[in-house]
Amino acid sequence: MTSRVTRTQVVIVGAGPAGLLLGQLLQRASIDAIVLERRSAGYVLGRIRAGVLEQGTVQVLEHAGVAERLHAEGIRHDGVEIGFRGRRHRIALHALAGRSVTVYGQTEITRDLMEARAASGAPSVYEAEDVALHDITSGAPRVTYVHEGELHEISCDFVAGCDGYHGVCRSSIPADKLATYERVYPFGWLGVLADVPPPWNELIYANSERGFALASLRSATRVRCYVQCPLEDRVEQWSDARFWDEFRRRMGEGIADAVVNAPSIEKSIAPLRSFVVEPLRYGPLFLAGDAAHIVPPTGAKGLNLAVSDVFYLHEALRDYYRGRSERALDDYSVRCLRRIWRAERFSWWMTRQLHQFPGDAFARKMQETELEYLFESEAAQKSMAENYVGLPLERAT
Ligand code: FAD
Ligand code: PHB
Fold first, then answer.
1. Around 258, how many Cα atoms within 13 Å sit in the side-chain half-sphere?
2. Contact residues for 251 (Cβ-Cβ < 8 A; gap 6+)
3. Given this model, what pLDDT does residue 2 score?
4. Rounded to the nearest whole angstrom, what is the distance from the C-alpha of residue 301 to the centroid of ligand 1?
5. Atom of ligand 1 nearest to the CA of 289
6. What is the pLDDT of residues 10-31, one digit of tens each?
7. Which residues are catalytic, by number?
8. HSE on the CB side for 318, CA within 13 Å?
9. For ligand 1, is residue 297 a contact (CB within 6 Å)?
10. Cα–Cα 20 to 30 A to 23, which of 101, 169, 196, 373?
């Protein structure tokens, strides 16, 4: 196979929200980057994932110049509800923490970023196969990939590993250079997207005897709902009717009566995991987003963390290319990890409080006690609100 050789400053592996946003931020800082994505653009846009954005995330998207549609179509939420024992308790996010969250789908952010990248003419390669990193610590790193049967090689200064949990970048780092922290939960989330007006105004996280359920939305005409399910379950076992029946039972009165059996336009099962590697840097390779850490979706933190990682990374690269210093590159991992561990703790806490852990009667008692405390104590609600709306991003000095 012949090899075509090019050069750029930063190779970004992965065109999920982390990779595309980094590309956009670098583009605006006049730093050259090439995005390499294993899948087609259509496939990336078809993945239904996050829906809740922290205010800090919205600000970064504004800074990146891709918030126009988000401002027009995103829905501000000032509270969330927790369902327990047939009652719903509101956590007044804005009143308690002074900030709100915005409901705007990850798919929409991805679309906005793809369009901005295409309009700027910055290079992206979709369906890039066999992406491989070479000579990482040699001072002259290279990335190769195959596209339409042809082998390509890019020499670069830095590689941004934005290729998600199953990507190639993290596994290119020698295992003895990374510490790994992990917790796997004994259940998954079955999610359904359906075009029907949501009969709820704010998200409802329900802890039911039958398992967790979440009522979310994407717009005034589209709902996104989840139920906790066994890890072994397959989507084919869940007809729409079975899903809605289970969802209604877990949501309880008030909501159950209003939920209709709307046909699903997407249905998928996601396992739940907490995962962090340290550090996020190996020479010129920087990990960002799900490539470096996973949170269970209960706290709505994964996408928000991916955004704060790449915000810090773009600042560090900008400082480097402006000839200021390498200090921000050196600090990148520590700076990200402070936020990451806070979000890991909160997501783990939310997951523990809201799901059924089969066979663990002690855990159930702790859950009941913790939730009763939450509903009675403004201090506990404030702590939850502060974490849910997200910690402010540290600004560069
Ligand atoms: P990804 O989105 O995984 O993107 C990585 C990209 O890299 C992919 O496009 C992949 O195809 C590509 N890639 C992989 N390997 C290679 C390779 N070898 N070569 C080239 N490209 C490669 N987060 C929130 O903040 N709020 C929420 O409400 C929320 N809800 C969620 C609900 C569910 C059901 C799930 C599953 C997740 C949710 N998340 C949420 C988490 C959020 O979706 C992720 O954290 C986010 O997608 C991370 O973005 P990323 O760009 O780091 O990784
Ligand atoms: C979603 O709308 O997909 C969503 C919302 C909140 C979460 C997780 C997912 O905690």
1. 13
2. 83, 204, 206, 208, 213, 215, 259
3. 59
4. 12
5. 52
6. 999 999 999 999 999 999 999 9
7. 77, 205, 297, 301, 388
8. 16
9. yes
10. 101
Asked if the bond preceding 198 is cis, omega within 30° of 0, the reply is no
Identify the nearest ligand to the CA of 13 by its number: 1
Both tokens of residue 320? Answer: 């480097």
167 lines ligand 2 (CB under 6 A): no
For the chain, the maximum distance between any two Cα atoms, rounded to a whole number of angstroms, is 68
Q: What is the pLDDT of residue 3?
A: 77
The token pair at 277 is 């590697």
Q: In what order do the strands lie in the sheet with 281-282?
A: 124-125, 33-36, 10-13, 158-161, 285-287, 281-282
Q: Is 171 exposed, middle or buried (0-12, 13-18, 19+ CB in 10 A)?
A: middle
Residues 246-278 pLDDT 10s: 999 999 988 999 999 999 999 999 999 999 999
End-to-end, the C-alpha distance of the chain in Å comes to 48
Check pocket membership of 309 for ligand 1, CB cut-off 6 A.
no
Token duo for residue 350: 């939310």
What Rg, from alpha-carbon coordinates, does the chain have? 21
Q: How far apart are CA 226 and CA 238, in angstroms?
A: 12
Rounded CA-CA distance 70/88 in Å is 29
The tokens for 57 are 């995330």
CA torsion 341-347-353-357 (nearest 10°) is: -100
Cβ neighbours of residue 106 closer than 8 Å, sequence gap 6 or more: 17, 47, 48, 49, 50, 51, 303
Cβ-defined contacts of 230-233 (< 8 Å, 24+):
230/187, 230/188, 231/186, 231/187, 231/188, 231/271, 233/188, 233/190, 233/269
Residue nearest atom 53 in ligand 1 by C-alpha distance: 164
And the tokens for 361?
A: 């009667």
Contact 150, 2 (CB under 8 A): yes
Q: Helices (H), strands (E): how many in the chain?
A: 11, 21
> Residue 384 carries which side chain, given as an amino acid letter?
M
224 lines ligand 2 (CB under 6 A): yes
Amino acid at 226: Y
The verdict on pTM exceeding 0.85 is yes
Residue with tokens 């991916």: 306
Cβ count near 396 (within 10 Å): 13
Helix, strand, coil percent values for the chain (each to nearest 5): 40, 30, 30
DSSP state of 95: H
